[in-house]
Task: structure prediction
Amino acid sequence: MSHREVLTALSGLLMGMLVAILSSTVVSTSLPRIVSDLNGSQTSYTWVITATLLATTVSTPLWGKFSDLTNRKVLLQVALVLFVLASVAAGFSQNTATLITFRVFQGLGAGGLTALVQVVMSDIISPRERGRYMGYLGAVMSVGTIGGPLLGGVLTDSIGWRWNFFVGVPVGVAALIVIQRTLHLPPKPKKAVVVDYWGAGLIAGGVSLLLVWVSLGGKQFDWNSTTSWLMGVGAAVLLALAVVVEFRSKEPIIPLTLFKNRTFTFAVVASLSVGVAMFGTSVFLGQYMQLARGQSPTMAGILTLPMVLGLLISSMVAGALISKYGKWKPYMIVGSVLLAAGLFLMSTIEYDTNFAIVSVFMAMMGLGIGMVMQNLVLVVQNSVDVSVVGAASSSVAFFRSLGGTIGVSVMGAVLGTKVSGYITDGLTDAGVDPSALGSGGSTSIPDLSTVPGPIRTIIESAYGQGVADVFLIAAPLAVITIVFVCLLPNVELGTKTGIQRAAASGDGSGAGAAGAGAAAAAPDDASAVEKGVAATAGLAPSVSSAPATTTDGASTPAPTSPVDQGDDEPVIDPADTTTDTRTAPTAAARRHHSHATTGTGTIDTIIATGAAEVAGHPVSDDELAESPVFSSLVEEKDVAADR
Result:
């Protein structure tokens, strides 16, 4: 595919990814006002974000596995429809419980988009060229991840926070239309689809229980309590059972054999901390800007632009350089170092830190995330078998989302506890009763516009210190990313697309499988002749050694010296494996087909067989002669015979 053709097919995918990312980030700067309007608490604040991340995390490997088994285009469209409907419903929520519920369904749709977009990219773009297109994807993700809060703030200040949920609907509908018109993928071979329901249920239950435990522990129940122990042990048991089931399943949701691949294992570990940095910073930077700096939702979004620009620039530039030079590891190492440094520096901020300094720290984090995040998926897709590329890609996204979800839950719990303590201590030192904050006490999200000046300063200081503590938690994880990025095997990027790799590998039986795979790689709306050319091209490498098939179905070695093939040549009907008595017209009647040369009969058989497989019946020489593409193929064969 040309660059323009790839971009055309990619346009709908990028739009779909944009709405998926927006669903997680557009409410970030608006959440203080949303939760306040719906009379929610800090726990509600965290769960509006966590619910979407949780659903995305749990569903991502399911979507990825299904993409290895069935039609990826249909799955993409299902995910988009689910996302659009859930977004509309969330916009009409009247309380935090309803909002959180529909955010779960948003997350399910976003999980499909997160998993499938990158899998489809691997189908149509080779790893070597995928770098720059991953750069485009990274740019879209950066706009959605960090630009989403800016958009949410503008909408909240202008027409109301409910439009945070409505804004993605037209983009989702447009993506649905564009995907239908521009994305053409080969059909999957028909086979019985085996769904690992037990594995899916155990993974979903174990991960969900783990995240609920982490999110609510220390607030709604003590860590060393019966409830806490039941949830923690229950999550461990469910996940252990999931491992057992996945080992025994015929089609596991997460094939555990993938962990034998060093690249996959190291990329998974590295992606955990990237998820924490990506999701956590976008969520808690919004709180820092509004509750520690006293900015409006719109300004809070604008003030995060240094991170947006850093991520945008690094993903585009690093992707282009990777495609140009074929080297990926140096950029990922530099990116992981920048990410760790940015997180450590962000842990030093306070409510009155010079904003120019904060901007530099945010830009460093953005540069780091842009160099690492998408390239982790790229190197994994480059190193695994094409038959499991969907499961492998979605697994990396799964662990990244898992890291982000756990990170937001833990960081939210820490922030709530720390802020509550800092506010209580500050008010006590000032000789003020903590109940001065209202009925919610120090555990609710305050409305700073209604708080007296001295108390407001105490609250801003508490949130400044609390957010800094949150970044300090994330910083050591970034060091782990550095280590495992350095350990990644420096494998050269391949030059074949996923479709080409599938055609080359086929079912392992050689040229016949390759031909069938090449025919399937033709677009959905390609003509039979075009598909026949693809099938023949896939068979071409075996011309010199393929056996010639006789009319009685027996196989004989290809000729090794000039042989006159005679006036009657067999036309092979692939549906008849015994005898085919039909013969093609005489050689004298065939245009440009009077030469006798080594393997001529074999080439004729390949041409006829490739056409017959597509048409579903034997194809005569007259039909071939009437087709410009097939007749030119015959002419090229005869030119080679003359030589």
User: Anything to note?
Assistant: Residues 439-443, 507-600 have pLDDT under 50 and may be disordered.
